[in-house]
Amino acid sequence: MVALDLLGRRWSLRVLWELREAPAGFRSLQERCDGMSSSVLRQRLLELEENRLVRRTDDGRYELTPAGRELGEAIRPLDRWARRWVAALDAPDDGAEGPGACVDAEDAGEPGDVR
């Protein structure tokens, strides 16, 4: 439950997502996270550092740790689902309901399968 508490905090996942490709400085992260105050960003970075998901580089930028990169891989299926879900919301309503309505047949697997 510790992970859910940390990741459920506003902006935590967004900060991790923005660091998925490459290290970034504080100002760059703040610009990428439209609407996040500097105090909230500072707090989230501190929490993510304390939990060893993010670390500071020698030049002062922030990057994902190995655990942070592993978490990033774990949430990629959520990103894929979210993209299909948004597309389904934008499509005309065909009577389908629930998250499974936006799963392509080729993506459907056994319950509990993670891709």
UniProtKB/TrEMBL annotation:
<dbReference type="InterPro" id="IPR036390">
    <property type="entry name" value="WH_DNA-bd_sf"/>
</dbReference>
<keyword id="KW-0804">Transcription</keyword>
<protein>
    <recommendedName>
        <fullName>HTH hxlR-type domain-containing protein</fullName>
    </recommendedName>
</protein>
<keyword id="KW-0805">Transcription regulation</keyword>
<feature type="compositionally biased region" description="Acidic residues">
    <location>
        <begin position="104"/>
        <end position="115"/>
    </location>
</feature>
<dbReference type="InterPro" id="IPR036388">
    <property type="entry name" value="WH-like_DNA-bd_sf"/>
</dbReference>
<dbReference type="GO" id="GO:0003677">
    <property type="term" value="F:DNA binding"/>
</dbReference>
<dbReference type="InterPro" id="IPR011991">
    <property type="entry name" value="ArsR-like_HTH"/>
</dbReference>
<dbReference type="InterPro" id="IPR002577">
    <property type="entry name" value="HTH_HxlR"/>
</dbReference>
<feature type="domain" description="HTH hxlR-type">
    <location>
        <begin position="1"/>
        <end position="90"/>
    </location>
</feature>
<keyword id="KW-0238">DNA-binding</keyword>
<feature type="region of interest" description="Disordered">
    <location>
        <begin position="92"/>
        <end position="115"/>
    </location>
</feature>
<dbReference type="Pfam" id="PF01638">
    <property type="entry name" value="HxlR"/>
</dbReference>
